[in-house]
Amino acid sequence: xxxxxxxxxxxxxxxxxxxxxxxxxxxxxxxxxxxxxxxxxxxxxxxxxxxxxxxxxxxxxxxxxxxxxxxxxxxxxxxxxxxxxxxxxxxxxxxxxxxxxxxxxxxxxxxxxxxxxxxxxxxxxxxxxxxxxxxxxxxxxxxxxxxxxxxxxxxxxxxxxxxxxxxxxxxxxxxxxxxxxxxxxxxxxxxxxxxxxxxx
Length: 200
Known about the structure:
It contains 3 helices and 12 strands.
């Protein structure tokens, strides 16, 4: 597996040799540091923990955990990497243009939203004294005298972990540590994004 953590910069467009417009998302992916290698004997499962360096103040547990690699970071993710040891660097050189990757991030939070915005419900009559313009309507019959689980209602919208598969690497800027991914990537600007590929 190939993996890295980055920060979403925003979207733009590039052009291929034929002049076709390609919408891309720019992700700043500076070299990550391997902070821990978990094994079946010590942790009960195998995984490799990597960190994206940040200039942030850490608390004592975080400082002690990252003392071996001498790096400051609050962004830690686990992947199934192979042939790495604590202190190794993981950069964009492992990815190739045209390669399919999977991207995971936290989507934009929309706060408390009604059923029309959250679930695309239809509106009711707007005129003739109707009081059911943006209301959800009936949520069930008499039985079973409770709200059935999973029913679509108003509530917290967004701020969920979203994973998008089969996105294509359009371009790699190894000098500025920026990877161009074709299409949209979940999350707002400056949010943290996990990029990985199962292809070895």
